[in-house]
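Entry type: protein chain
Record version: 2
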Amino acid sequence: MLGCHIGRCFQVTVAGGSYQDGLSATVQGAPPGMAVGEQEIYGDLLLRKPGADELSSPRKEPDLPIIYSGVNAADTIEGAGNFNHTNGTPLCILIPNLDRHFIHIKQYQDTNRTPRPGHASYASFMKYGPDDDAIGAGLFSGRYTCTIVAAGYIAKKVLRKLGIEVFSYVREAAGVKCPDMDHAAILDYTNRYKTMRADLDPFYQEIYVKKRISPEMRFLEKMKIFAEIEQEIDPIRAKAPKMAPQAVLDKYGVHHIINCPDMAAANEMVAACNKISATGDSSGGVAEVVVTGVPAGLGEPVFNKLDAELGRMLGIGAVKGVEVGAGVAVKDMTGYECNDQMHSADGKVVFDSNNAGGITGGLTTGQPIVVKLAVKPTPTIDRPQHTIDKYTLENKDLAAITRRDPTIVARIWPVAENYTAMVILDNLIAHYGYQALFKK
């Protein structure tokens, strides 16, 4: 299968499927000497995984990662202190599927003759034929985005050391919009939201905080524990720390369900999503990504413009539009309104606006990069729909499906955040290389 690789200097290859043994992300370009562990990677994965709250699918997949290669298995010399540091070789992260039971496979087997509207099941059947991985939609399932989160976390960690922050949040859900806010406030809020999610995640607490799995364990030792966890998913989930919404707000200052930094908007979003879901239908929204600390001049011209590279986030399942800066709103502006005028203050260039989203001519201006992703409603809905038998082309009715996400936007923002980090780091490595070679 082509299409599962991205990057020039920071490269990522993904593999696997929703109901295969698992998924993997192989990263090339991670610098040597960086301490990295499974607990911190899972800290991002838990933000995307299903079954975490009332706005996500009830599938109980915990999304626990295993670092399979790319880090030192021991100190390279006695006392070196570089155990578990990246060593410059490809970093491979495995994410086994643990909530993969025959009852769910049988449900797909019983319905796979009739493609689900809004899903890739008809198109993928036409491309790959009867051997298409149709159990759980394979690599066309939103499940594959866990690989982007895992690989993108590595990129984000490198960028943070260079003073570059990449963060995302839900800008709009079910027609409810978050008002404009200061970027520093959004970053602070998002960090507190992530802390809350880790503190209240039962697998984070039971597996990593209690060190049931630790970096010192070998791969096969970890897999033995994973085999045990597969049988304990429900008991572990039952141990989830319980906090009332008001207690979450008092302790962390965040909404208990959705990562929207305006509390009033967050409450309205959840209510609007649930109102639509109660009818058997689903809703869409907008995820916004912000990047701060980027140097001016990052990117390349023509075919590799940075905004074009960010536009590749259309490859995220359910994303149907990517806007940079003011995006499609520029059609209603005049040139004077749209242009980001600038002036000098204290020896620095200051822009009066950021309609360009920090990118002009495909190159960064030094302003924050702002990207919005339009996320379609969840195609799996609890309502009957018209479809066909893909073998006979007979017209059929597809029964309502209850195991679903009321909305996807609440799970896509961490995917967008980490995908953006991969694109920025890939371009940053090339940019610094160009600067070192050709600029005096």
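Comment: DSSP finds 13 helices and 16 strands in the chain.
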